[in-house]
Amino acid sequence: MEFSGRAAGVGDAGAIWGVIAAAEVGWHGRAEVVPDRVAADLRRPLIDLALDTLVLEAPGGELVGWAWNHGGKRAQVDVHPAYRGLGLGSRLLDWAEARSREVGSDWIAQTVDDADKAGTELLQGRGYDVLAVNWLLERPLRSQPCEAPAGIRLEAYDSARAEEAHEVVEGAFAEFGSRRKSFEEWAELTVARASFRPDASTLAYDGDEVVGVVIALDGDEGYVEQLAVATDHRNRGIARAMLDRTAAEFHRLGRGNLTLWTHSGTGALAMYEHLGLRVRRSTTVHRLWL
Question: Which residue intervals define the domain N-acetyltransferase in the entry (predicted)?
Answer without folding.
Answer: 14-142, 152-290
